[in-house]
Structure to design on (270 residues):
């Protein structure tokens, strides 16, 4: 197996497609493969015996399913914006045959009419490919966003300087994360790959600006220590119940925040 191969883990019922991003030899001489999710913000490692390479055709089919879900979600977001007071319930009665182009034009017009300028976003990501996808999606959603690729472990050392430089309304701190297997203490940051770095970033930002309305913070990735991130001062954190999140989940949360009036209450289902 080589770096770049697409693989699944047999011990996890082949539930997630990973890409091999590094190969290491541990102190016992065992070869370990460092993995990252293709569409999921998770990081893991595995021995070769537990991995199975999947062919490009299977990967392509999974990508089609993922892209279809993403496009459906984006269409729903734009439709919601195009209807004053729109939400998931009102969308059910909107004619689905109206063209996407017309919807996008209408959404931008109405968003400007009802909300003015949406919030500006600083998106810090440990994954360059995911950041590229996110920035393209922000553009599709007519949101001003500045993106920076920074390894999770280095994010705390630069977060304050970047916020002072960009002066954002919303900050996204993300990348990859994951839990150790068979852990008993879910609150111990030592049991997570990168949660401690996300928590440190949030703590630094809240020391800099303690107002939850002036500076909105989204932090975390797959299986991150959700409770610790909220305790540190994040407005939104992933992931409750240690669930997996898609690469665009932070974008969709921030879109809702950026385009919602501060006096409005958003239904949690939306």
């Amino acid at each position: 197996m080589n770096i770049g191969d697409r693989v699944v883990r047999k011990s996890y019922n082949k539930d997630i497609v990973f890409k091999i991003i590094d190969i290491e030899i541990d102190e016992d001489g065992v070869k370990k493969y460092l993995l990252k999710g293709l569409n999921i913000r998770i990081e893991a490692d595995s021995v070769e015996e537990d991995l199975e390479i999947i062919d490009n055709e299977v990967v392509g089919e999974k990508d089609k399913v993922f892209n279809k879900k993403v496009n459906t979600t984006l269409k729903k977001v734009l439709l919601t914006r195009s209807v004053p007071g729109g939400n998931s319930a009102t969308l059910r009665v909107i004619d689905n045959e109206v063209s996407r182009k017309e919807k996008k034009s209408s959404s931008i017009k109405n968003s400007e009419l009802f909300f003015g300028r949406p919030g500006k976003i600083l998106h810090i990501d440990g994954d360059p490919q995911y950041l590229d996808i996110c920035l393209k999606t922000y553009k599709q959603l007519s949101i001003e966003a500045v993106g920076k690729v920074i390894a999770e472990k280095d994010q705390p050392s630069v977060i304050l300087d970047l916020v002072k430089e960009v002066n954002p309304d919303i900050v996204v701190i993300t990348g990859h994360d994951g839990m150790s297997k068979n852990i008993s203490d879910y609150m111990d940051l030592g049991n997570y790959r990168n949660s401690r770095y996300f928590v440190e970033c949030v703590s630094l930002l809240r020391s800099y600006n303690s107002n939850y309305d002036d500076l909105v913070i989204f932090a975390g990735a797959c299986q991150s220590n959700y409770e610790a991130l909220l305790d540190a001062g994040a407005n939104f954190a992933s992931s409750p119940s240690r669930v997996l999140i898609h690469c665009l989940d932070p974008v969709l949360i921030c879109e809702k925040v950026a385009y919602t009036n501060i006096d409005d209450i958003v239904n949690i289902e939306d």
